[in-house]
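Posting this for the archive.
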Amino acid sequence: MSDIIEEGLLRQFNVNPTSIERWILLGVLRSIRFYRSIRQNVCARQTDGRLRQDFLTPRYNQLYAAADRFWRLLDRSSMDRDMEIPRHLLATLLQDDLELGKLDEPDYRLLQEEMEQVFYSMPVVPAPLLKGIHGPLKVWLDMMTQRQPHTQTGCEISRVGPVNHLTNTLAIERVSRSSGPASRAFEAARTDTCP
């Protein structure tokens, strides 16, 4: 089933390259395992501690930064089951970014709408959907490495050649809602100073 999802996402990506960004963020927000599997490649931390700005949609770089701040608080946790960032905690992190001037009002409002209509519209994200994101993610990462340089405001997109069928090895047992470790780590995430 994830192969069918992957092929559909690749077709969508070929029509609109920035569409994959929403799917990547869906995985990042809704699955700590997905986040951990991609964080070394997507918006990787630079030597100065800042996150590289990989997303072509500038507000998505800020959304990823908020998610990254939250998930890194759980780095030392061994997760025996998958979990998501609770929506209300993410909303508070974005509100903090708005108040600190890291996020402007129009982008904040757009992200609030997208959280409602896109990122948290499904009660549970099916594991095959998360597995299916990895093929388009590989193509997106290849495209991002062709950009010169990584910027906060986006860039021109170079033409990407034919997309090969890609396999993935991520095994996600299930996505479940949890507020245990997430709630305990929340206050520390709000005060983290990473961009």
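The first helix runs from residue 2 to 15. The two ends are 37 Å apart (CA to CA).
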